[in-house]
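User: Show me an example of a complex going from sequences to structure tokens.

Assistant: Sure. Here are the input components:
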Amino acid sequence: KPRQQVISRFFAPK
Amino acid sequence: MLELRLVQGSLLKKVLEAIKELVTDANFDCSATGFSLQAMDSSHVALVALLLRSEGFEHYRCDRNLSMGMNLNNVSKMLRCAGNDDIITLKADDGSDTVTFMFESPNQDKIADFEMKLMDIDSEHLGIPEAEYHAIVKMPSAEFARICKDLSSIGDTVVISVTKEGVKFSTRGDIGNANIVCRQNTTVDKPEEATIIEMQEPVSLTFALRYMNSFTKATPLSNTVTISLSSELPVVVEYKVADMGYIRFYLAPKIED
């Protein structure tokens, strides 16, 4: 089954 | 002191209906630029970014940058008390722990004040870098909503693939599988009925349909939706809010282990 990634993997805190 | 007057109050009603399923609590940020929000869903899989530019308001007064924490379900309860043709004004005093929604009927014969308690919300803003997308699909928003709804009766995930042939939405589940291909189509009566595919290179990504279906709650805001895809990046599903701004939904892709 494909694994769900999270948004913070792509966008860093400002 | 904050005072924002929106003649087309129905836009704010639709904005809340579009995001309240995805996000429970959020900070609304006011600055000279406009009224904005950035928030993640509780699983940190999707992010919503809203911008309503200050020029889009009939009156926009924001003396200093202000962040107002609100429970979106409660905001929605307040805004559902506004008529669709009402003018909506948001008011807040500096340092106040409440915000007031004022609803004026079009002929000014009914004026209502709803005061709502604000809340403290810890949230960090994420930097969303400008990206070059491999493919950008613009299509009727109702068509996209129909596709997401139809596919979610078959499977849990959708594979969105863009090739020279068009954009393909695929799913598979216990009972079988489904593929829907939309080709570029610009020979339509109205521009908002067109499907336009700009492809730099082919791209194929997998997403959870549950989130896609949640994004389509924004369909009443705009006749068209723009889906921007790049391999290794969250998809961006964008609905314009009249000519004053946008709601952008970002969704992290699923990957094979």
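The lines above are the inputs; the final block is the predicted structure for all two components together. The mean pLDDT of chain B is 97.
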